[in-house]
Amino acid sequence: MHDDLRLFEFLILEGAQAGLSWDTILKKRENYHRGFAGFDPAKVARFGARELGALMRNPGVVRNRLKIAAAISNAKAFLAAQREFGSFDRYIWRFVGGRPRQNRRRAMKQVPASTPESDAMSRDLKKRGFRFVGSTICYAFMQAVGMVNDHLVTCFRHRQLSRPSLRVPRLSSLEIRGGPGPGRRSAASANIAGRARGRASR
């Protein structure tokens, strides 16, 4: 994923997901889209007390003041990174050398909660003023946007994503995280049974 608006979307959603299930956030995704101006960082960065108050009264989003305030301040930091690097995409993909990390996991227990790359990303994001960007959240973000391929080798998506020349069909955010084959569900939980229930409910 290299589109800045999509990257900003996942940055907001991963921060909102902290401490919650990914299924909860998925169900609220459209509400987030409306509440956060279509995930346009330029618009979100201009949010003030009125917009923050409206979001706090919105049952369609996680009404956590710290998370909502962080999303607004993260939009400002996001725009600063765009100005410095030309795009957020160019900035964030540096942490994997510009190419997806192709892992060969054979069991869910081999999927880590964080890596040295996510540690480095977290540290740098925090220095730039981002919040709710701990290493575990960063690694879930990396998985969600395709910076790392943590699909198990038994999953058909692993083979697809391991071949850069292949045009991979666009998938939903849930499928990006794991799809029909096993994969990480979220920053907080890698419970494969929970993933199966989530897929069945879609």
Considering the chains and any ligands shown, give keywords for the structure:
12 helices, two-stranded parallel sheet, disordered C terminus, 202 residues, 2 strands, Endonuclease III, domain 1, mainly alpha
Give the fraction of residues assigned to helices.
Answer: 40-55%
Largest β-sheet summary: 2 strands, parallel
Order of helices and strands: HHHHHHHEHHEHHH
Count of structural domains: 1
Mean pLDDT figure: 79
Strand order of the largest sheet: 1-2
- The proportion of strand residues reads under 5%
Query: Count the helices. How many?
Result: 12
Total E-strand runs: 2
Provide a descriptive summary of the structure in words:
- With 202 residues, the protein is mostly helical.
- The protein has one domain (4-201): Hypothetical protein, domain 2 (Endonuclease III, domain 1, Orthogonal Bundle), CATH 1.10.340.
- 53% of the residues lie in helices and 2% in strands.
- It has twelve helices and two strands.
- Strands 1-2 form a two-stranded parallel ribbon.
- Helix 1 (4-17) runs antiparallel to helix 6 (65-85) and helix 1 packs across helix 9.
- The chain is globular, with a radius of gyration of 16 Å.
- The chain starts with a helix and ends with a helix.
- The model is unreliable at 165-202 (pLDDT under 50).
